[in-house]
Amino acid sequence: MRTLAAALLAVGAVTHQSLAQSDSAAAPPPAFRFAREAGSGLTTLWATSVAAKAERVACLAASVRHDTVFVSRILPLDPVEADSMGISSEASVERCGPPQWAGTVHTHVALYTDSLPSTRFSAQDRGVMSRWYERWHADGVFCVVYSAHDAHCEADGVVGGMHSRPRIVR
To answer: Can you give the CATH number for the domain in which 44 is found?
Structure first.
């Protein structure tokens, strides 16, 4: 059985669903690559979530180089003041910001169909992402893990591998 980390590294990329898919002239979405540490952290996050039968969330560290988002590590957050799904969005919005963190990753364990949790961000997830942007005013990277082998990730503010907002690098 392959771990989530091995699956993500073997595939080489988790695709970003965006408007670029409907616009053939747009640049391709960025690819996602996960360091071994991040992959094993995601595997543990998933296992913890399944065991608890509740969603779990973690901060996500990432950098963008050319057309690739490199996820280097995650920091699981304790489910303090959690909602009915086991996640406290306030903690993730406040804790998972720059410069140390680039966004969040969370699990979907509740079944959406007869055999699979939701493979995309829910409306509530999008609301949390919006609050993250309002709080940090920075490019963000967000993932949802929905099986022991699969995740869906998006990098907002990254267009064709280039940051859409200029940054001063010293």
So the answer is: 3.40.140
